[in-house]
Predict the 3D structure of the following.
Amino acid sequence: MIILALNCGSSSVKYQLYDTNTGILLAKGALERIGFVGTFIIHQTEHQKHRLECDCANHEDAIFTVFKFLTDEEFGVISELNQINAVGHRIVHGGELFKKSVLVDDEVINAIDSLSSLAPLHNPPNLAGITAIKSLLPDVPQVAVFDTAFHQTMPPAAYLYAIPMKWYEKYGVRKYGFHGTSHLYVSRRAAKLLNKDIKDTKLISLHIGNGVSVTAVSGGKSIDTSMGFTPLDGAVMGTRSGSIDPAVVLFMIDKEGFSSEEVNTVLNKCSGVLGITGRYTDRRDIARVAKEGDRLCNLSMDIESYRLKKLIGEYYAVLGGLDAVIFTAGVGENSSIARKMVCEGLEHFGINIDNDKNEAAHSEADISKDDSPVKIFLIPTNEELVIIEDVKAILECSYNNPDFKYSFEV
Ligand code: ADP
């Protein structure tokens, strides 16, 4: 089966084309700056990488361009578009309507559309991708895979806020959580590394990239997560503040006369480690300059790791035990200093990092001391693989089978 995974953002389309028979990634790429001057595509196959300028006014143009590359005589990996058996879409917000991935039909399209007010920047472009495929490949089945679905198992005590219940009932104001596909992938891999059935595991997964979220996973199910109603909540991020006292917003509106849009921009785009350092979002820059003695960069690393430590403590408490802590995403996978700073001081929880293993790890690895009661894993995330396997399982009608397992967990 040949499956195309699509991630349609407001001005970009990211894609991966997989052959599930061979398990080979045939091509991947990204088309950026849709609707702006200077649109370009980066298209990669096993042996080649191309960057070319193109002209795309909207998502349909963009996906048409991707199709041209996939079937091109020089850059292509398939000869005909009808070789694509199915398309899987990453959809940011599934609200309370979607607890799992689903086959797309008109009802699903309307439901995703109805959730746009919860994710105004994400669901409309995600939907534009579905509509474009519907028009370009009308007979090809499409599957929607939601960032929020994995967290739909949280209990009400975890997902409800202590605000008037009417806000939840009328507008759906509650914690939804994000990065679900990533937390699902790494938690299943961790169970495999622990050589345990996922149902018997208690895990804390730290997805630390530009966006950062921490999830408590019990028996393979998310029971709490640090992002909330939006991805702004929780840990300190590249440019997002994470949790703050909500009264700060009111205070700043009073002081500076900010509009809601301005506050939104400051908290989402000018805060986090960028806000603290005043210069950097990339943790590589921060670690380098911190090493040279820069006060704000050191402070940024201290605040980020302190807050992650506290989240581990919270989730240890609600899990009632812990088998492993998992590090994933850009920082979690690549920064040994970040992992060390988070784990140091948590020895009383049985979390004992092995500094040599931590320094040496660059791919999936156990970086805990041999006798550490809680294992510490570095697990590179693979959200696309989850999308591809969900699509395949849905088409083969095995997805809703209670014994369904992903290839990466067996
Ligand atoms: P997102 O998908 O949220 O945009 P990623 O998971 O790709 O983010 O992570 C991006 C971040 O990973 C960058 O901001 C950078 O700080 C960090 N990163 C990547 N490589 C390294 C590294 N070698 N050391 C420290 N941080 C790194």
